[in-house]
Amino acid sequence: MSTIQDIVDQLELQPHPEGGYFKEVYRSNGLINEDNLGEDFSGQRNYATSIYFLLTSESFSAFHRIKQDEIWHFYKGSPIKLHIISNDGIYSNTIIGNNMEKGQHPQFVVKAKDWFAAEVIDKNAYALVGCTVSPGFDFKDFELPERDTLISKFPEHKNIITAFSRL
């Protein structure tokens, strides 16, 4: 059985600002011009990007959002609980994992501009997933808000925001 450090080393993962570890593994050669992206974007974007993303039960992915849809793919380890707050303030969650008989989803799409956070469900465990973004990811499209900012926007979700934010 792989240890967390084995996976970090083998996949050459680096710490991610939202929590966990990541490595970009794909960035398309093709580019989308700013004129075709819409008013939310500045500059060009690749057609798509993909990363490995590793979370552990000792860490979580803090609430953040991006301007694009993000597809999560489950690979290995514990299922992940994904917490989502839509721009309209509606909270939902889903389990990303490979036990479909228990309602887990091996693949799930977080809609563009939804706030989301993730946690490993099992104790003393990890989850290895992949995340695909289209148009391709750029840190200019990434928002990691301060806790109080997100709570002021969605006060009815104060408890879940507090649990899955760091600032």
UniProtKB/TrEMBL annotation:
State which residue ranges cross the membrane.
none
Q: Which InterPro entries match?
A: Cupin_DUF985 (IPR009327), RmlC-like_jellyroll (IPR014710), RmlC_Cupin_sf (IPR011051), YML079W-like (IPR039935)
Against SUPFAM superfamilies, the record matches this protein to: RmlC-like cupins (SSF51182)
Q: Name one Pfam family in it.
A: Cupin_5
**Domain DUF985, which positions?**
5-144
Protein name, per record:
Cupin domain-containing protein
Source species of the chain: Flavivirga amylovorans
User: The organism's lineage?
Assistant: Bacteria, Pseudomonadati, Bacteroidota, Flavobacteriia, Flavobacteriales
